[in-house]
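Amino acid chain:
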Amino acid sequence: MQNQIFERFQKGIYFAFVGKLAAIIITIFSLGLISYLFLIWGWSFFLLPEIFVIFINCIILLSLYQYNQAINSIIQDRQNIIELTFATIHNGPLQSLAKVLKLVKRDDLPSNNLLPIIENELEELNQELREMYEFWQQKTLTKNTSLYLGNNVVIDLRNPLHEILYQVYSYTLERDFPCFKTLKLKIHNFEPINESSLSIENKRGLCRFLEEALCNVGKHATGTTCLEVSYSTSEGRYILSIMDNGLGNYSSREGWGTKQFKNLAQQIKGKFRRVSLYPQGTLCELSWPLISSFWWQ
């Protein structure tokens, strides 16, 4: 939402500048034409000073516009860094912290057994935060083509989307979430399909979508035995879906992740949905039009 407001603000400034510049050009041309006609008619009246003043105003206006664009670019870069940082924290340390909080609320384990588990989880959380700091210090981040997952795992977003989605899938399933321990069947399908309509940021968003959806399965899909992840095409749409057969215990409150995924779906002119399956299970899905129809939306 913030990005959309910022884009509309930038467009407003651009159109205002173009309108003022066009008005100045028309005014200069009109004054020049009037001066020329006066000279032809033999009048001594000449408008060169007025034209000069308007020309100086035009230069000042152009300078102010360029300065404003530079400031807006700095603000946008800062906002992008904030969002990238929080997305990394949300799908990494915050997921680990959620595990710790869940352990603290357990009443089926005695304290002497629970405390070592919590201590181990907190040590892992501490290590995650330190690794994240080291990653954000790297100069490669300035290229904005890297995706950090944790444990020093860095993905190059310039690679084909089906490859990086498989990397996210493999890494996330190795994380220590309780519901992953009951999985007996894992089905995955990542088709190599045309991705030229997607930007680097779109690909980053899709990777974060898959990562968080899998984390949610690991945290909430109690008793799940089957997990099916698919990235393919169907009925004129690209579809990235995550489906489990567990007893989902998802909050009815719309969290940060859900808001981000709805925003991503809007950016790629797609749809996001999370639905309960019968008799049990959850489907989390993001779909968007094929390229042939994408550009006509």
Observations:
- The first strand starts at residue 146 and ends at 150.
- The radius of gyration is 28 Å.
